[in-house]
Hints:
This protein is an alpha/beta fold. The chain has 12 helices and 14 strands. It is elongated.
Amino acid sequence: MNTTKKIELKGLPLDELRIFLGEIGEQKFRGEQVFNWIHNHLIDDFDLMLNLPKDLRQKLKNLSTLESLQRKTVQQSMSTGTIKYLNSTKDGKHIESVLIPDNNRNTLCISTQVGCPLDCKFCATGLMGYKRNLSSAEIVDQYLISAKETGKDKITNIVYMGMGEPLLNFENTIKSLRVFIDEKNTGLSHNRITISTAGIAPKIIELADTGLRVKLALSLHSCFEDVRTRIMPINKKYSFKQNIEAVKYYAKQTKTRITFEYTMLNGINDRNEDINALIKLCKQIPSKINVIPFNSIKHMDPGGVSAELDPTPMPRIYEFVEKLRSNKITVMIRDTQGDDIAAACGQLAVKY
């Protein structure tokens, strides 16, 4: 085994952690002990893993690491209590994650890439470009650091809705999910975790076949191919039609309800024909719609189509939603939280 680069233990699912301990000459049950220290006791110091022999702790220090991210800054919204975290990677990259309070639920929004390659026109992350995928440890560590600061029981839900497209970092996204939903990891479960995708149809099908059964949210934003392509260039490669077939498969395989995310853009996707198309779509798939008021991305100095986008006025949003609900469609209007610190939906970005 090549040990020139230290293994990041926080990103290893329990079965891989057991294998790693076996490969370094230890009994595999030690993997469960290490997993318990990391994920249930939130320990990131080998010397504090007191039921491990001293020589094993030293061996782990030599061959592996518990350091993946460092917390750089913390900002809290004065209006909503939303907290935005800036984290740095070992190679000097920066990512953001957000803790969103909502009554008895606290949702941590985590990132899977440094930047994003998809260039969705309404999203600030795309404007910062794409740097690299995050490792599974870097994905998991966003949760672990926040849980250590707030208390593990305070974070009730995880959404993969931060920087990047999770399904373009498929292997590491899956590994992080396996860490989170392991039965030995207390406090988390598959029905409290949501993967959000802009629509990578083959990977949606592959995700369905993993058996993980996490919730799936499709960034829809239009039911029309031409409109969707204009605001989401990935639609050229994976069309609306392909993605709808994929989410139908996902819903059937996992027996879960799909969430359609719908950012309201004035004069673009808030027309009566958009309402009719959404009604037709939702009659075909067990689903709900999250309507999202468009949040400004002017802090990234956008150009082109991005600079031309305006939010749909709130009276039209309410009218739009009411027409959907009158057709027995489940619709939620997502409250804007954290826009005063650029932490609201679509605003996460770090300028390089």
